């Protein structure tokens, strides 16, 4: 049985799309296929049909200021076989001096994923109903744990036209293992991501790039109004880190709520690549910053660095520079 020539010859890192070959009424799915950025609803349906045991779906719905929204939305209806992953309880540590959503304990998150039945060889798919605002954080965190085969459902819940499930067997409270789920063998591996702390950013801002200083290109995923300090509905101080570019994550999406084309995203982020410096992505608390990281990878740029604490950590120390002053 042969795969198509294109699928056979494509580099593994570029095999984002599945290939179905039908020979003598038999269907063969290219097992090498990996989705590492985005997956559309049709591709997910194919995976669920032909590789159901190797696909793990994570419902990452959430809403800032409403800790119960995600669990309630999950209970009301979710993609079949999906497990629930909470922003506050699974994808972040407790709020404090490190910001509103510090990174979780890596070992605890790895154990949580294993408890949800995720295996080391699985293709993970994450989704939400907020344009990927929360699912992108899950996508980044899974890669942070060293798992490359994770993709965000492009268009989220609204892109899925299949049936939804309310089955109790699929349900899981945010801090407990799902009922009737056999634990997987997911383990933490060398990270595929990069992070930076506040001290390193402060040092880079005070450096002179012309003198060989360690300068970065900063991008802020918040709205223009929050970036400019016109309004700040969440954090106690308004503004942005000096020198940052305002690139709201919402503009990564088209009118239908799907990611823009790679060419469109490449043009959008061209300003970030102009000086060749490493890009650092931040937002209010390190959540939607991951959306810009995903978009830049889709656009073909090197993966940006995440500043996990973001603006909510930055403003804890009044000695850190802010704009406007």
Count the beta strands: 11
Contiguous helical run count: 11
Count of separate structural domains: 2
In sequence order, what are the helices and strands, one letter per element?
Answer: HEEEHEHEHEHEHEHEHHEHEH
What CATH architecture label of the largest domain applies? 3-Layer(aba) Sandwich
Helix content: 25-40%
Q: State the name of the first-level CATH class of the largest domain.
A: Alpha Beta
Radius of gyration: 20 Å
Strand content: 5-15%
The CATH topology of the largest domain is: Oxidized Rhodanese, domain 1
Distance, first to last CA: 66 Å
What spatial order of strands do you see in the largest sheet? 3-7-6-4-5
| CATH H level, superfamily name of the largest domain | Rhodanese-like domain
Secondary-structure-based class equals alpha/beta
Give the mean pLDDT: 87
Q: Secondary-structure map with pairings?
A:
Layout: H1 5-9, E1 20-23, E2 26-29, E3 38-39, H2 41-50, E4 55-59, H3 69-76, E5 83-84, H4 106-115, E6 123-127, H5 135-144, E7 150-153, H6 198-205, E8 217-220, H7 224-228, E9 245-246, H8 262-268, H9 270-273, E10 279-282, H10 289-298, E11 305-306, H11 310-314
Report on this model:
The protein has 325 residues and is an alpha/beta fold. It folds into two domains: 34-170, 3-Layer(aba) Sandwich (Oxidized Rhodanese, domain 1); 198-314, Oxidized Rhodanese, domain 1, CATH 3.40.250. The protein is 25% helix and 12% strand. The protein is built from eleven helices and eleven strands. The strands form three sheets. It has a five-stranded parallel beta sheet. Strands 9-8-10-11 form a four-stranded parallel beta sheet, with helices on one face. α5 (135-144) crosses α10 (289-298). The longest helix is centred in the N-terminal third of the chain and has 10 residues, at 41-50. It is globular. It starts with a helix and ends in an 11-residue tail after the last helix. The relative contact order is 0.14. The model is unreliable at 1-30 and 169-177 (pLDDT under 50).
């Amino acid at each position: 049985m042969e795969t198509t020539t294109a699928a056979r010859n494509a580099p593994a890192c570029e095999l984002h799309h599945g290939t179905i070959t039908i020979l003598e009424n038999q269907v063969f799915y290219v097992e090498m296929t990996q989705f590492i950025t985005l997956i559309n609803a049709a591709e997910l349906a194919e995976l669920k049909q032909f590789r159901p045991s190797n696909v793990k779906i994570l419902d990452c719905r959430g809403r800032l200021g409403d800790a119960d929204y995600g669990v309630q939305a999950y209970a009301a209806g979710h993609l079949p076989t999906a497990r629930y992953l909470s922003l506050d309880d699974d994808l972040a540590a407790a709020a404090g001096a490190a910001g509103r959503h510090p990174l979780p304990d890596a070992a605890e998150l790895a154990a949580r994923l294993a408890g949800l039945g995720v295996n080391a060889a699985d293709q993970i798919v994450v989704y939400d109903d907020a344009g990927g605002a929360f699912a992108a954080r899950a996508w980044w965190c899974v890669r942070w744990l060293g798992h490359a085969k994770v993709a965000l459902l492009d268009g989220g819940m609204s892109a899925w036209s299949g049936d939804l499930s309310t089955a109790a067997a699929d349900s899981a409270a945010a801090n407990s293992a799902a009922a009737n789920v056999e634990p997987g063998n997911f383990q933490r591996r060398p990270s595929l991501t990069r992070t930076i702390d506040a001290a390193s950013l402060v040092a880079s801002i005070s450096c002179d790039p012309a003198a060989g200083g360690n300068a970065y290109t900063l991008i802020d995923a918040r709205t223009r109004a929050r970036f400019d300090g016109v309004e700040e509905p969440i954090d106690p101080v308004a503004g942005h880190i000096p020198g940052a570019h305002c690139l709201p994550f919402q503009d990564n999406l088209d009118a239908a709520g799907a990611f823009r084309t790679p060419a469109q995203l490449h043009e959008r982020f061209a300003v970030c690549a102009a000086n060749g410096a490493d890009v650092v992505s931040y937002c209010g608390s390190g959540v939607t910053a991951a959306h810009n990281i995903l978009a830049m990878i889709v656009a073909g740029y090197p993966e940006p660095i995440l500043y996990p604490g973001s603006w909510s950590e930055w403003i804890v120390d009044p000695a850190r520079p802010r704009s406007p002053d």
